[in-house]
Specification:
0% strand; 6 helices; 166 residues; mainly alpha; 2 domains
Length: 166
């Protein structure tokens, strides 16, 4: 499998950043480990997933979450709705923690995270939000309509950007 060198380097940097505070890391060893991890994961990594496939994944995730609902929640649809929305807040908190870590805002820890970790947490937040919408709509096309409507609304709010498009 041909893994782009920049992907290997990025993965190695993530691993090294996570381990740097524990012991001295040989970057070449980390890079080899990152390559092995990426090669093992490659069959499952897809860039540019078509919208229909992504929405089918959202539908499947929602159904799986419904099927694994805790027995205490089964007869409480409102509690189940709250749980899905609360998950978005939980993920947003993790994104904030990742931002603090990658910017060094916590002076006691310094820079202890990476941009890749931050982006991953932001993606987790977006994924949780989309799945919460799907939980409410139970219709992947309606979920996409709600999401795309929000994007269009945000675009309309920006108005004319100096030096950019309107």
């Amino acid at each position: 499998m041909d893994v782009p060198p920049e992907a290997v380097t990025a993965a190695a940097e993530v691993i090294a950043a996570q381990r740097r505070h524990l012991w001295d890391v040989d970057f070449c060893e980390v890079q080899a480990l990152a390559r092995a991890i990426l090669e093992a994961a490659a069959p499952h990594i897809r860039v540019g997933t078509p919208l229909a496939e992504a929405l089918s994944a959202v539908e499947a995730i929602d159904a799986n979450l419904d099927a694994r609902t805790s027995p205490e929640y089964l007869d409480q649809p409102l509690a189940r709705r709250w749980a899905r929305v609360a998950k978005v807040a939980e993920e947003a908190g993790e994104a904030i923690a990742a931002l603090i870590a990658c910017t060094g805002e916590n002076f006691r820890k310094g820079v202890s995270g990476t941009e890749a970790e931050l982006l991953g947490e932001l993606a987790d937040t977006a994924s949780a939000a989309i799945c919460a919408i799907q939980h409410h709509t139970k219709d992947k096309d309606l979920t996409w309509a709600v999401l795309s409507s929000a994007l269009v609304k945000a675009q309309r709010r920006i108005g004319t950007v100096p030096g950019g498009a309107s």
